[in-house]
Amino acid sequence: MKNDRTHGTFSTTRWTLVLRAGDSEGPSSETAWQHLCKIYWYPLYAYARRNGAAKEDAEDIVQGYLLSLFERQDLNRVSPEKGKFRSFLLASLKHYISHAADKAKTLKRGGAAPHLSLDWEQAGTRFEISDTTSGTPDEIYDREWALALLQNVLERLRSEWQAKHKEALFDLLQIFLTVDRNDAKYAETAASHGFSENYLRVNTHRLRKRYRELLREEIGQTLKNRDMIEDEMQALFKAFE
To answer: Helix 197-220 crosses helix 229-238 at what angle (to 10 degrees)?
Structure first.
């Protein structure tokens, strides 16, 4: 997906992903829609489960809700002036659960709506083994949003290193993304894999720098402008407290 960048910084308007997903006539509409679903479908599912819905009911709720967004073209009416996109989705889901969940099974399926590749079996297992008892449904939603976003960034980062034929090096270094610099055992790791310590340090620095860039870019795709990115970064890491 093409990035809206100008001289290495984010452009003023960062609502691009949402706008593309809402433009059903646009050539990149379905790609943008699938990207949004990839990030948000499980956090929405986790919210529904934590809010009391049974497994099958949560599946119907989330699938019905996402399809209704697309079919009703609700994203065309979403304005960045109303706040963060993830907050809009959660508020919209709450409204759907309160007023339209009983219509989920009668929603039109197929047609112009894109196929949703949602792994319900994996979602059910993931929910059962995760710590979903500590925190409100809203807090669970925020935490799962943060996890999904970070996972997507890691996948993008891995793809970039694969393209450079450095996937093995990426697998070796990615642990240093979450290890404090003072605790990183560069010398020990380098010796056990036949690298120099300096080589590992330089590549770790590059990996961390690109990771931060991709994270800011990913977060920025559903925000109004770059001034909101730092606040959203803080919200992301606060979700793990």
So the answer is: 110
Q: Is 100 exposed, middle or buried (0-12, 13-18, 19+ CB in 10 A)?
A: middle
Rounded-to-integer distance, Cα 21 and Cα 28, Å: 7
Mind listing the pLDDT tens digit for each residue in 199-231? 999 999 999 999 999 998 888 877 777 778 888
- C-alpha span between 181 and 61 (Å, rounded): 43
- pTM comes to 0.75
Q: If you search the block for the tokens 């990207």, which residue do you land on?
A: 35
Rounded CA-CA distance 39/155 in Å is 12
Query: What are the backbone dihedrals phi and psi of residue 6, each rounded to the nearest 5 degrees, phi first?
Result: -135, 115
Residue whose pair of structure tokens reads 């910084």 in the numeric block: 9
3-state helix, strand, coil in the chain (%, to 5): 70, 0, 30
For residue 135, give the DSSP letter. Answer: S
Helix axis angle, 55-71 to 29-50, nearest 10°: 150
∠ CA 198-204-208, nearest 5°, is 150
pLDDT one-digit tens code per residue, 87-100: 888 998 998 998 76
Strand, helix or coil for residue 164: coil
